[in-house]
């Protein structure tokens, strides 16, 4: 199957999965389940692309394995963190807006939009099985980015979970471990993972440079759409101490924190 056919097949698969999830969310009255599918959706796309391609090479199979590890870890963590705690506040606020048909709204804005983003972000995963590249120095760089990224976000999630379990005051701010050097180490890890996937594609065929659309869109989402900007707006209203944390800590890329005197200048 060629790349254009794979694009259509994956679009149909993602649309079908999102529609099924939407129906389940109506039954459960909980749109939060869409978040659990975020990582798993890319696993589905990677496997569909690899299994449907005419002759996927070792690099394609390796990337599919890497996507599976990343996606299952993320889904497992979110399930452990969120299941049993009711609908996420973001979706609850959307649901409670007056004069809104939330069922239709969630189909388009929550499930439909996330499916569209997933299809675009996964462009590197969709094209790789159709390429005939072999391992190279760029492949090694891509693997390094993926490995560091996965370790970064896994450790960050662990540190955050441990902090929340031991925090005596809900207004406390985590500023230790990886969180000392960046306010969002889990998002930075995700950033590295996706640019690692892109480098694997680039190592297979340099003419596939345009699939940078995928990790670029993921980076935009992490920084401005559903990640850093959105989350920090909510945190600052609940934790006054977070303002000082912002002044002394890098927002995204890891960097040594500013001293208290520097943060006041």
Features:
265 residues, 0% strand, 71% helix, mainly alpha, 2 domains, globular
Structural summary, described in words:
With 265 residues, the protein is mainly alpha-helical. It folds into two domains: 1-132, no CATH class; 134-256, no CATH class. 71% of the residues lie in helices and 0% in strands. It has helices at residues 3-28, 33-52, 58-82, 89-95, 102-121, 123-127, 137-166, 185-204, 213-225, 228-238, 242-248, 260-263. Helix 1 packs antiparallel against helix 5 and helix 2 crosses helix 5. It is globular. InterPro entries: UstE-like (IPR010721). It holds the Pfam family DUF1295. Keywords: Membrane, Transmembrane, Transmembrane helix.
Question: What secondary-structure arrangement, pairings included, does this model have?
Answer:
Layout: H1 3-28, H2 33-52, H3 58-82, H4 89-95, H5 102-121, H6 123-127, H7 137-166, H8 185-204, H9 213-225, H10 228-238, H11 242-248, H12 260-263
Helix pairs in contact: 1-2, 1-5, 2-3, 2-5, 3-7, 7-8, 8-9
Q: Count structural domains.
A: 2
Number of strands: 0
- Number of helices, counting only DSSP H or I runs of 4 residues or more: 12
What is the H-and-E element order?
HHHHHHHHHHHH
Shape: globular
Mean of pLDDT: 91
Low-pLDDT ranges: none
Q: What class do helices, strands and sheet pairing give?
A: mainly alpha
The gyration radius over C-alpha positions equals: 20 Å
Q: Major sheet: size, sense and barrel closure?
A: none
β-sheet strand percentage: under 5%
Name the helicity range.
over 70%
Distance between the amino and carboxyl termini? 59 Å
